[in-house]
Amino acid sequence: MTVPDRVPKVIRCRAAVAWAVGKPLSVEEVEVAPPKAGEVRIKIVATGICRTDDHVLEGCFPNVDFPVIPGHEGAGIVESVGEGVTTVKPGKTLLWFNLAGS
């Protein structure tokens, strides 16, 4: 019996990408790198696009660099974890809401 390769690899998935302010979202295949130390890679099951995302797409936040993949309210499953992550493990389901600020 062989042991599956546990080394995280680059994965390909579909995402709605905004390439510039005011342009329509483009659904395309993107590459997602393995998580670095302290990071978690999540398989997104559902996400919401809220008014904050709309503001980003309209260019209301000048510090946002395009391209961007909007959606900061999500639900998913931990796919892999980076070195030092101890609070979640692959297979764990998560819900999150990310608020920007200090």
From TrEMBL:
Family annotation (PROSITE patterns): ADH_ZINC
Keyword presence, Oxidoreductase: yes
GO molecular function annotations of the record: all-trans-retinol dehydrogenase (NAD+) activity; zinc ion binding
Keyword list, A-Z: Metal-binding, Oxidoreductase, Zinc
Any single biological process term in GO: retinoic acid metabolic process
Stored InterPro entries: ADH-like_N, ADH_Zn_CS, GroES-like_sf
Annotated SUPFAM superfamilies: GroES-like
Domain Alcohol dehydrogenase-like N-terminal: 37-94
Gene Ontology CC annotations of this record: cytosol
Name of the protein this chain belongs to: Alcohol dehydrogenase-like N-terminal domain-containing protein
Species for this entry: Strix occidentalis caurina
